[in-house]
Amino acid sequence: MARVLLNVPKTAKRGEIIEIKTLISHPMESGFRVGTNGTLIARDIIQHFTCTYNGEEIFRAELSPAIAANPFISFFTTATESGRIEFSWSGDNGFSASEAATITVE
Amino acid sequence: MRSRRRFLIDSARLTAGAGLVSLVSFRPSWATLETMQGAIREVVGEASVQRGKVALDLPPLVENGNTVPLTVTVESPMTAEDHVKSIHVFNEKNPQPYVIAAHLGPRAGRAQIATRLKLADSQQVVAVAALSDGTFWMASGDVIVTIAACIEDVP
What we know:
Oligomer: heterodimer
Structural class of chain B: alpha+beta
Radius of gyration of chain B: 22 Å
Structural class of chain A: mainly beta
Number of helices of chain A: 0
Distance between the termini of chain B: 41 Å
Distance between the termini of chain A: 34 Å
Strand content of chain B: 35-45%
Shape of chain B: elongated
Strand order of the largest sheet of chain A: 2-8-7-4-5
Order of helices and strands of chain B: HHEEEEEEEEE
Order of helices and strands of chain A: EEEEEEEE
Strand content of chain A: over 45%
C-alpha cells in the first residue's frame, strides 16, 4: 500500500474555501528511461486521481509521465457540510490506493 | 595481410557505429512545438485560445528537472454560471506533450491547482483553461533546466 499524506483542515466555517493537499508515494516511472541492460524500463505511472466530498466528485485529474515521482496535487474546494473527503488514485499495473479525511463544518 | 593497427581502427569504427544505431533505435522521439500545439488542438478543438486570465507560477531556472513545482491560477468568480471547467498543462520538449488535465467545478471556490513536474529539457510550459462559457484562455512560461529528467538512464 502506497503511503499517502493528506493535508485537509479538520474544521472549517460553512462556505469557506479550503485548500486540500495530497501526496502519494509512487515511482512514476516514465517509460522513456533505459535500464542497465539497455532496454526501456516499462511505464509505471498513476493515471487517475479523484476526490469526492460526501460522495460527490469535486476534483478529478489525469496524470501523465511528466508528473514527478511521488505525485503532489493540491486544489481548492468549498466547505459545505461536515463529512468525509475521499481520495483515490489508480494507474498502471493495477495500482490503486485510496484514503479519506473527515472535516467538521461549523 | 591486415595490420593490427588497421584491425583496431576497424573494430573501433564498428563498435561506434553499433552504439550509434542502438542509441537511435532506443531513444523515443521528442515532442516538438508542433506536437504540443496538436495536443492543445485536441483539447480546444476549433475554438481560439486567448492569452490572459491564466497565471502560471513556475521557477524560471531549476537545477533538477525531476521535480519542478508548478501552480496554475485562473481568474474566475467560480459561480455556477461562470467557472473554470478544466485546466490542462502541456510541455514542449518532453517525450510526450501532456502534463496534467484537472477537472474542477463551481464548488472549487478558487480555480487553482498545484503539482510537480518532470522536465526533460529547458522548455516552454503552457497552461490552458477551459471556461464554462466555452472560451479557452492560456498562459505560458519558460523554464531553464540544468539537469534533465524523464529520459536519463539508470546508472
